[in-house]
């Protein structure tokens, strides 16, 4: 298990990077998976990682599992990597913005 200082830092990093609320993320995952003829069930909408981020947002820090911590680290790393590598600001690249939003990060939010 991660020690208390590492957990505190990861918790802060994750919540800094994941700037969408659980309601915003849930709505985005449903919109992302909807098309003209079908719409995924709310509990099944989005990517597995997006669903896991949503579940983490609804947990208390004391309820986190090792799998949650792994996903939190991955999300922090992925958002940092994708925003650092972007030629254009993420807010101007629609595809990149949508990928980041699937992880709970909306580059248009302050």
Description:
The protein has 5 helices and no strands. By secondary structure, it is mainly alpha-helical. The radius of gyration is 14 Å and the shape is globular. The N and C termini lie far apart (33 Å). 23% of the residues are buried.
Strand % is under 5%
Q: End-to-end distance, in Å? A: 33 Å
List how many beta strands DSSP finds.
Answer: 0
Radius of gyration: 14 Å
Mean of residue pLDDT values: 84
Instruction: Give the helix/strand class.
Output: mainly alpha
Largest sheet: none
Q: What is the N-to-C succession of helices and strands?
A: HHHHH
**Form type:** globular
The residue fraction in helices comes out at 55-70%
Q: Which stretches are poorly predicted, pLDDT < 50 over at least 5 residues?
A: none
| Structure annotation, total helices | 5
Which descriptors would you attach to this protein?
single chain, 110 residues, mainly alpha, globular
Fold blueprint:
Elements: H1 4-17, H2 22-33, H3 48-57, H4 66-85, H5 94-102
Helix pairs in contact: 1-4, 2-3, 3-4
Gist?
With 110 residues, the protein is an all-alpha fold. It is 59% helix and 0% strand.
